């Protein structure tokens, strides 16, 4: 496959000066349209499926559904685990499969139905995970449930659920019964719109066998064949490997294309999409957090290079099944100080900058990323702003959620961005955003009635001082009259965390305080909407963009 060099991803110019250029000039030509702006951001996931139907879980899912013009896909672990449905950190259960005294299967869909019902009633779609192993089918069931807590060894979570099936026929029949039940409950057309996947990070902790690749492929052969048996038009894929597992991905693709299928005896296995994970790597150094976006982009780059090396699967959908600044959503900042970025605007600006660069890499390779799952949800009944990687705390939205609200207002085709810009995907991969310059850049789109530009001011170092002056020029605007909306995430806008701190960081806010925080967590305008006149198709506006701030400038016209 002919891949464009990453150094010419877009018309960025690398600046070598030792101070932020003033102003940063950004030009967007409304006629320089690229392909459709794929809503890769409208995908979310979490470990704890039982939070789904709890009070704050339902509220957050409603907000996620409302912010997106397209159906939101949701991925959750532990959907097949044995247990009573109790929620805990990095744990969940549905008890869908048990056996009687004679080893006969007992199917119980009550809990998993309540999870999927919560999605479907909000017009969301499951990224339905076939995982993990029910206790009665595990090759090593004791101990089965873990009781891990932040600060303890992460490997403690890998108990009986993380083993392969002792009886592939019973396991396959369970999958068949589940898919068939979903068709009966939700309808064939609805289930055809889902994605079915096998397991999670089998190359890492999540599959407790010596030959992880061989066992995973056998499990995939059985799972994919069974899903297709229940619904031939279903979409099934994998392998959801960790970011460093490029060789596992290569071998998996080759297996699906060329090797013997352990379930059918034929050559190859069906796969309708491919999935991998991409994570950053923050550290706590010199008394502050330093992010590691380069690690996340390297993961993306590594896997896109592998996928694009197979010309026979050109355009296959790709899902980044977990796409985050680091790896453990349930590890709070008190036990893991490198995660102190999560409550405030560092998480917001990182998310804006990284999503745009993932789109750049996808464009450069000519691949087809359809989703980048933000692995953060909410943790029910936990301390306020504890520092979990989450979108909301106790029903109050964090600043990062407002980035997704901004993205939800960006539709149509992506527009080219040019200017005296310091960073692109390749030089972030090479050295991160760690020099004297911050990453001031934009993602832009155009539909029939609007132009939208998301601006950010990001740096890997968690420092708030230092703003950039941005001179934004829009050209070839197809109207003379328009309304300009300017939304902002910063210390003073769309930021419930700062409001909570000003309240004295209450551990149990009053009803009045809660209402104030709830309002503060919503996306806010920086200024009132402004009627503007476009002359010669051009509009120039100057924006003072604080460090870690994100702006959305939206020009709406008839």
Summarize model confidence as the mean pLDDT. 95
Main sheet characteristics: 8 strands, antiparallel
Spans of 5+ residues with little confidence (pLDDT < 50)? Answer: 1-18
Number of strands: 26
Helicity range: 25-40%
Number of domains: 2
Query: Could you say which structural class the secondary elements and strand pairing correspond to?
Result: alpha/beta
CATH architecture of the largest domain: Sandwich
- CATH-defined superfamily of the largest domain: Glycosyl hydrolase domain, family 39
Tell me what the structure shows.
- One of its GO terms (biological process) is carbohydrate metabolic process.
- Keywords: Glycosidase, Hydrolase.
- It comes from Filimonas lacunae.
- There is one protein chain.
- The protein starts with 23 loop residues before the first strand and ends with a strand.
- The N terminus is likely disordered.
- The strands form six sheets. Strands 2, 17, 19, 20, 22, 23, 24 and 26 form an eight-stranded antiparallel beta sheet that branches.
- The protein has twelve helices and 26 strands.
- The protein is globular.
- It folds into two domains: 310 residues, Immunoglobulin-like (Sandwich), CATH 2.60.40; 195 residues, Glycosidases (TIM Barrel, Alpha-Beta Barrel).
- β9, α6 and β10 form a beta-alpha-beta unit.
- The protein is of the alpha/beta class.
């Amino acid at each position: 496959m002919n891949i464009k060099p990453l150094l010419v991803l877009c018309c960025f110019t690398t600046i070598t000066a030792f101070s932020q250029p003033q102003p940063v000039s950004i030009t967007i030509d409304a006629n320089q349209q690229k392909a459709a702006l794929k809503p890769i951001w409208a995908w979310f996931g979490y470990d704890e499926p039982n939070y789904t139907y709890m009070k704050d879980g339902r509220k957050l899912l409603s907000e996620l559904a409302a912010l997106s013009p397209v159906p939101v896909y949701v991925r959750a672990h532990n959907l097949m685990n044995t247990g009573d449905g109790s929620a805990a950190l990095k744990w969940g259960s549905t008890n869908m499969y048990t056996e009687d005294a004679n080893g006969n299967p007992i199917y119980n869909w009550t809990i998993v139905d309540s999870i999927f019902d919560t999605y479907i009633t909000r017009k969301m779609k499951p990224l339905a995970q076939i995982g993990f192993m029910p206790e009665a089918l595990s090759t090593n069931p004791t101990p089965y449930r873990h009781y891990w807590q932040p600060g303890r060894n992460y490997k403690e979570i890998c108990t009986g659920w993380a083993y392969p099936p002792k009886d592939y026929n019973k396991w396959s029949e369970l999958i068949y019964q589940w898919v068939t039940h979903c068709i009966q409950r939700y309808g064939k057309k609805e289930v055809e719109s889902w994605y079915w996947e096998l397991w999670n990070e089998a190359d890492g902790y999540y599959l407790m066998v010596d030959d992880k690749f061989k066992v995973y492929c056998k499990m995939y052969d059985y799972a994919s064949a069974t899903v297709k048996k229940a619904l031939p038009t279903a979409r099934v894929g994998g392998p959801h490997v960790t970011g460093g597992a490029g060789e596992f991905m290569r071998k998996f693709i080759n297996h699906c294309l060329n090797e013997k299928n352990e379930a059918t005896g034929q050559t190859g296995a069906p796969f309708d999409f491919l999935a991998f994970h991409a994570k950053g790597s923050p550290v706590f150094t010199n008394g502050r957090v330093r992010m590691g976006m380069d690690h996340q982009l390297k993961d993306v780059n590594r896997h896109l290079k592998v996928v694009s090396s197979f010309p026979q699967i050109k355009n296959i959908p790709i899902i980044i099944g977990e796409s985050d600044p680091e790896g453990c959503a349930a590890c709070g900042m008190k036990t893991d100080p490198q995660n102190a970025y999560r409550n405030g605007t560092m998480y917001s600006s990182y998310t804006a900058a990284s999503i745009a660069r993932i789109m750049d890499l996808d464009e450069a390779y000519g691949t087809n990323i359809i989703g980048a799952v933000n692995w953060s949800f909410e943790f029910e009944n936990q301390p306020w702003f504890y520092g979990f990687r989450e979108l909301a705390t106790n029903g109050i939205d964090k600043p990062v959620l407002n980035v997704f609200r901004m993205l939800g207002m960006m539709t149509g085709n992506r527009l080219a961005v040019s200017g005296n810009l310091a960073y692109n995907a390749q030089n972030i991969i090479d050295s991160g955003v760690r020099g004297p310059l911050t990453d001031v850049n934009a993602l832009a789109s155009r539909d029939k009635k609007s132009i939208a530009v998301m601006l950010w001011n990001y740096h890997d170092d968690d420092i708030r001082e230092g703003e950039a002056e941005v001179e934004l020029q829009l050209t070839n605007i197809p109207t003379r009259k328009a309304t300009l909306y300017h939304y902002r995430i910063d210390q003073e806008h769309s930021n419930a965390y700062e409001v909570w701190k000003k309240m004295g960081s209450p551990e149990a806010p009053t009803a009045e305080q809660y209402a104030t925080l709830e309002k503060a967590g919503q996306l806010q305008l920086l200024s009132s909407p402004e009627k503007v006149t476009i002359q010669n198709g051009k509009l120039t506006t100057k924006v003072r963009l604080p460090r870690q701030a994100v702006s959305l400038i939206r020009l709406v016209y008839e």
